[in-house]
Amino acid sequence: MKRIPVSISSARIPRTVLSCALASSLALALPAGAAVADEAPDSTATQAAPDAPAGASDADEAAASATSTLSDAQIKDAVSSAEQATGVPGEDIQSSEAVDAAQAAADEPAGREGGSSLAPQELKGLSGLSTFAGDTMYETAVAEARAAYPNGSNTAIIAGPGDAWVDALAAAALAGSHGPILFARENSIHPATMQALKDLGVREAIIVGGTAAVGEGAADDLRGAGIGVTRLAGQNALGTQLDIFKYGLKHKLWTSGEAYVATSAWYGDALSISPVSYAKRAPIFLVNGLNGFNAEQRAALEAAFADGTLRRSVIVGGTAAVGEDIADYLAGLSPEGRASVERLAGATQYETSAEIAGWSVRSRGFAWNNVAFTTGRMPYDALAGSVLQGKFLAPLLLVDERKTYGVGVAGMNRAGITSARVFGGTAAVTPSTRGAIFAALSGTNLSFEDTGLTLDRMVDLEDANDNSIDGKNGYYSPDQLRHFIDPSRFTYGSALFYQFAVLNKGYSGVLTADQLNEFIDQIAPGYERNWKAHSKLRGTGQAFIDAAHESGVNELYLLAHAILESACGCSPLSQGTRDVAPGYLNFFGIGAYDSNPDNGASYAKSQGWDTPEKAIKGGARWIAQGRSRFINNEWNQNTLYKMKWNYEQGARQGTVWKQYATAAHWPDGISNLMAQCYQHHGITLERTGLEFLVPQYR
């Protein structure tokens, strides 16, 4: 299994390894200038914005908190519901499935269908990461336009598809005076674009580019909708840029006194400066990589500097993109000389993007809040999104797989970020890149692991091995298995996300014995009333910490697991009241089977577990052992998710028999208990000291 760490410790993100198969499954790349099919997904994925919560499973819906506030009847109802859901009536290890319902946090959302496995809802200090995405570039641009102009706009900028991006690179400043940037097909207006134009109340459209970029058929569609049309175009990209500049001169749009200069050979640098161009009404001048400015551009620049329209120049990109001869030429146009020319550049377009973002905050009135992340492999999402960023005075960062320099820079400035945005779906900004963003903005230590399997293959393996039982209907169906296995149901920061916590890092140093005891005391009364027993877990907080030190397994996981498996120390197996081994305690159900729970008592006797402390430490050692055990075995089952869904065994052996528990929602119960304890003590996910490992299916 190959792991992708995304914890942020410095401005430069450490280079990591991701298998080619995983990368190809998560990213969609188009060559520069590639044509885009009208209806096919291109710069966006088929992911919708993560707004609507998916429905909870039957077991989730049966869940209710079993604290001292619950009545005996409520606890019994919850236990009964869980027994029906899991198909394991009875006591001891079987009744632990009931504890899942009696202890699980109520109404835990199941995640977001079809989206990233990490849709953030509860990031510390972060109200959310908004996604602007549609099935195609057209819908994504519409989403961005509606957010930028919620009250409508009289004018819109219309750009073309495919390699027509080059004509639109200078359009951001124009949009700053007029309205959103939307996309046309080559010779017609896409239905989504047309509907947006109507909804926004657009009366005038400015087409950027000649008829090869946006055909007359598209212009006729606009006129037919009662929208006036102005076309700004030249013989090539430099000519179109110059026509945009002249239009701005005529309408007195250029008010900042500075011009931004970028290469026309690639879009990354121009896109990154576009929000500032929009906000400051500063024109973008494009240069030809070989020849620099053409004669018409030089004449326009010289006139603008002479009459005071322009006074300064900001070059974006290194000398390979915009040569030093261009900088010398621009310096000669201003009375301030070289002091009037500034260059913003990095080793790559991603580093240049981050440099522009930092500069915009330092010197142009921008702020890190509402920072947006978008792919540097395709221009469309960034081009339309630059308008939204310009309106909010927020930077735009280019990011891609293993190209997350900008993510690290944003992470260092996370104190000023309460909201952030992603432009494009998961084909544009992949799940692992989104995970890097979440980690950077929340300060969480988060990694991803290639499972080596597709989700379909994992579901097939689980279905073939009959490893999971639904007590109401027998074995789970493939669709039910998919629901439980699919990581996309787990919301970042939610209770269920704790099943990705790495458990073999030993004592966290976060929770004290008193805090563990307080949590036990809070939840034990409900179990004690239900089982008519005094919990054997009361007062064992230090034993769990000692066990964590000795076994190398997290203390709260051990406690949560013990609560789940032993009905909080109240079941006969944990009370030591089994006839076959009176006085011997088993908190983890080790050795107990549905058909023979007494075997667990016999095992406890064979290990000498005649006190709670011995049972806790012995159980922890058993869980931590390698080979035939869990956590540190040959399959590296060091998360709750991996303990239940052994994808590493599936990838290596084509089978998945080595798994813990038969109930598909078994990890949910422990996750919820861990979350409850942290929440009870006011400890956020970022302060737990935990690392998180999230599976990525191909």
Automatic annotation (TrEMBL):
Residue ranges constituting the Mannosyl-glycoprotein endo-beta-N-acetylglucosamidase-like domain according to the UniProt record: 528-689
Ranges annotated as biased composition (Low complexity)? 41-73, 95-108
List, alphabetically, the SMART domains matched.
Answer: LYZ2
Cite the entry's keywords alphabetically.
Answer: Signal
The UniProt annotation puts the region (Disordered) at 41-122
Q: Which Gene3D superfamilies match?
A: 1.10.530.10
Signal peptide start and end residues: 1-34
GO MF terms, alphabetically ordered: amidase activity
Quote the protein name from its UniProt record. Mannosyl-glycoprotein endo-beta-N-acetylglucosamidase-like domain-containing protein
